[in-house]
Every structure is written in structure tokens, then in C-alpha cells.
Amino acid sequence: MVSTGDTAPGISATVGTSDHEPFDLDDHLGDGPVVLAFFPGAFTPPCTNEMVALQEHADEFEAAGATLFGVSADSPFSQGAFREEHGLEFDLVSDTAGDAIRAYGLEMDIAALGLYGIANRAVFVLDESGEVVYDWVADDPTNEPDYEAVLDAARSV
User: Fold this and answer.
1) What residues act catalytically?
2) In a 10 Å sphere around its CB, with 0-12 CB exposed, 13-18 middle and 19+ buried, how is residue 66 labelled?
3) What pTM was computed for the model?
4) Contact predicate 118/96, CB 8 Å
5) Pairing mode, if any, of strands 67-72 and 34-38?
6) Do residues 136 and 149 make contact, with C-beta atoms less than 8 angstroms apart?
7) Distance set, CA 8 to CA 13, 19, 25, 58, 124 (Å)
């Protein structure tokens, strides 16, 4: 599992819009901290709470010079609808193949719900070179991160 001090694995995926824009993490390094918020699935109550809470802190992340991304295995279409419904202004990254989820050591199954290969809830803050300066991984995917701790980590870069 990726942790503080590690070089963050690269991510090549798609931005969650109907345009299927390509996403490459390397394109966002070097312009301030990057916050990667992995979440299990769009439209679920805990994930909605987390993404809305991150949106509520968007101005503070911007003031810290941070770029925020949500990452899940949801399709770009689902993520686009999720962003629109909840007024999310930051990009969601569609990792439908699960490559980033596995690279960060976050793959999990919730068999009772028929969900396989989804991301556990986790947040990583990366510095400009891609080093992980903060990591948090949920013990239970219904738990949410400490948003102030994430903001403090972004401010510290």
C-alpha cells in the first residue's frame, strides 16, 4: 500500500465526463500539491458526503495551491452525472480498469452488494514532485477522512 514518503504511482485514466478526456497524473505534478481522494462509488451516501464535503472545502484547497481529484472505478458517464447532481467543481477520475486502485493498494470487494474491484476510501496528498506527504486509508469504507488534516497537509507543501 502506498504511504507517506513513497513516490506516488502514476495514473492514466479518463476524466469523468461525457467527453472522456484523458487524465495523466504526471500532467498535474509541479503546479502545487495534488490531493487524490479515492472513493468506492458514486451516488452512495458515504461517497456523496465525502465528495460534497471536499467541494465545501474547495476554496481552501485552492488557496493552498492544491488541485483536488476524486478517483473511483465508476464509469465516466456515472461520474459526470454525479458531479452535475452534486455541483462538484473538481474533476473525478474514472479508473474503470482499476489500474490506479490496485497500484495504490486500495482494491476491495463488497460481495454483499455485488461490488468487486472498487476502491477503498483513501486520501493521498502529493507534493510537486509526486512524493506522498500525507496518506489516510479508511479502516471501514463508510468512514470519512479528517478534512482539516488533509487541508493541513496540502498547506504544508
Assistant:
1) 47
2) buried
3) 0.97
4) no
5) parallel
6) yes
7) 15, 26, 9, 22, 9
Name the amino acid, one letter, at 6. Answer: D
Tens digit of pLDDT per residue, the chain (157 long)? 999 999 999 999 999 876 778 999 999 999 999 999 999 999 999 999 999 999 999 999 999 999 999 999 999 999 999 999 999 999 999 999 999 999 999 999 999 888 899 999 999 999 999 999 999 999 999 999 999 999 999 999 9
Unique residue bearing C-alpha cell 459526470: 80
On whether the CB atoms of residues 100 and 11 are closer than 8 A, the answer is: yes
64: cell is 493552498
